[in-house]
Design goal:
The chain has 505 residues and is an alpha/beta fold. The chain has three domains: 2-188, Methylglyoxal synthase-like domain (Rossmann fold, 3-Layer(aba) Sandwich); 231-347, Cytidine Deaminase, domain 2 (3-Layer(aba) Sandwich), CATH 3.40.140.20; 373-497, Cytidine Deaminase, domain 2, CATH 3.40.140.20. It is built from 19 helices and 21 strands. The strands form five sheets. The chain has a six-stranded mixed sheet, sandwiched between helices. It has a six-stranded mixed sheet with strand order 16-21-20-19-17-18, with helices on both faces. Helix 15 links the parallel strand 12 (323-326) and strand 13 (344-347). It is elongated and about 100 Å long. It starts with a strand and ends in an 8-residue tail after the last strand.
């Protein structure tokens, strides 16, 4: 038997070579891999003995040679192949072991230059892997060091059957496809800057883990990711494994909390922010977020945008929450919270994302994520009574908060905290009523009602007035805007049109 080995990742290679030597397999290799095998004390030959050519172009060309690829692709059962093998005296390989330059690692490193990234596009490696995978009928092809132990056992037992070779080949085509996709995504990410909508959608994700089930116990579930961080790659510090719904709610909570610059705390139930507060002090933010809806908060998920502090942990532990997600936990806060056996504590690095996808029957919907920074220059102050300058910060918070509530979304805020919200209703006046009832005992003359889309009728303005709301912020754009504005003026309500909506379905 003959094996061709050329790898970047040399983990486990010594043990594999030990197996190959024990079955009298002749090893050929290149460059650094050849030196590594020699230093491990194994007999190894250079591919120069097959090609008759030294490596050239700083190693860019090593295995790209007819004698190498013929030795991999040849089918001795094909008479034409057999004729060429004999005529050209081609040595046949039985095993190819190869893994590639770390393009993804280099391309995502802030320290990498563009030239370094391009140099880490492997050419010869994928060519060898694909050639061997195509010829799996007689070839054994390996790229993953995790497979070394399995294939070693089968080689020693002389039991590398066709099914095993096919499984290994299938992994190769998936691996090289993903590798090429990462190169494509890197090279095309700044292409066609006038439009972020690509003609072809290439998604290549790796399974992070299987879940116990999906949304319901009869549905299977798993988490996939193309990154090393973010909620998909969270770290579980305490508690049971995360469920499908835990991931959804944790993502909603972490996204909301990381959308504000101060110490922000969000409390999420069924992907809606039933509590949200952005304050200079984290403990204050938590208490005000909980005030938003302490009943719905029970069994919910808490998201924070800064390390969870000890005093905050002392308050959190008083309420049952399913999950707490934060960038980190202080040592003392961990001691406090781990006393709750069923509370999941997870950390994650927040990843800013510009795009999002949703599956539909037969395809995928794509859109830019609603990450817009509010530009008050685009706002219209359309009622007779105008807000004061010191109200603008609170207006921005109220308007931003609607992004984290499912439409039809109504949010009532006091300062930079939610005191009531209505979500997911088939008509807007229902959401106003739900938010008003929830916020009623906290509403003051400084409270703000924010709507994620325009009011189609003046009835919602009348209802808001019954709850003593004196400031409303909404997108505008209804054919009855004039009627709505007149009603606000009649009731001495300040109203602002943002000229942008925040629908979330």
């Amino acid at each position: 038997m003959k094996a061709l080995i050329s790898v970047y990742d040399k983990n486990g290679l010594e043990q594999l070579c030990e197996t190959l030597e024990s079955i009298n397999c002749q090893i050929y290799s290149t460059g650094g891999t050849l030196s590594f095998i020699e230093n491990c004390g194994f007999k190894v030959s250079s591919i120069f003995e097959i090609t008759g050519h030294e490596e050239i172009l700083d190693g860019r060309v090593k295995t790209l040679h007819p004698n190498i690829h013929a030795g991999i692709l040849a089918d001795p059962e094909n008479p034409n192949h057999l004729s060429d093998i004999k005529k050209l005296n081609i040595d046949l390989f039985d095993i190819v072991v190869n893994n590639l330059y770390p393009f993804e690692k280099v391309s995502t490193s802030a320290d990498s230059t563009y030239s370094e990234i391009i140099e880490n596009i492997d050419i010869g490696g994928p060519s060898m892997l694909r050639a061997a995978a195509k010829n799996y009928k007689r070839m054994i092809v390996i790229y993953d060091p995790k497979d070394y132990h399995m294939i070693s056992a089968k080689l020693k037992a002389k039991s590398v059957d066709l099914e095993t070779r096919k499984e290994l080949a299938t992994k190769i085509f998936k691996f090289t496809s993903d590798y090429d996709s990462k190169i494509y995504n890197f090279l095309s990410k700044n292409e066609n800057k006038s439009s972020s909508i690509s003609e072809k959608l290439e998604l290549s994700l790796t399974k992070v883990q299987d879940l116990r089930y999906g949304e319901n116990p009869h549905q299977k579930g798993a988490v996939y990711s193309d990154k090393k961080n973010g909620v998909a790659n969270l770290r579980l510090l305490h508690g049971k494994e995360m469920s499908y719904l835990n991931y959804l709610d944790a993502d909603a909570a972490f996204y909301a909390a990381n959308s504000f610059s101060k110490k922000c705390v969000s409390i999420v139930k069924h992907t809606n922010a039933c509590g949200l507060s952005s304050q200079n002090n984290q403990l204050d933010a938590y208490k005000l977020a909980l005030r938003g809806d302490p009943v719905s908060a029970f069994g919910g998920i808490v998201g924070l945008n800064a390390e969870l502090e000890t005093e905050t942990a002392k308050e959190i532990v008083k309420t049952f929450f399913d999950v707490i997600i934060a960038p980190s936990f202080s040592e003392e806060s961990l001691k406090i919270l781990t006393a709750k056996k069923n509370m999941r504590l997870i950390t994650s690095d927040f990843v800013h994302q510009d795009t999002e996808y949703r599956t539909i029957n037969g395809g995928i919907l794509f859109q830019q994520k609603d990450n817009s920074n509010e530009d008050i220059k685009s706002w219209d102050f359309i009622t007779k009574i105008k807000p004061e300058k010191d109200e603008i910060e609170n207006l921005i918070f109220a308007w931003n908060a609607t992004r984290f509530i499912k439409s039809n979304a109504i949010v009532i805020t006091e300062g930079e905290s939610i005191i009531g919200m209505g979500s997911g209703q088939p008509n807007r006046i229902n959401s106003v009523n739900l938010a008003g009832k929830r916020a009623e005992k906290y509403i003051s003359e400084n409270s703000i009602l924010a709507s994620d889309a325009f009011f189609p009728f003046a009835d919602s303005i009348e209802l808001a007035d019954k709850y003593n709301i004196k400031t409303i912020i909404q997108p505008g754009g209804s054919i009855r805007d004039k009627e709505v504005i007149n009603k606000a003026d009649e009731l001495s309500i300040k109203m602002i049109f943002t000229n942008q909506r925040h629908f979330s379905h």
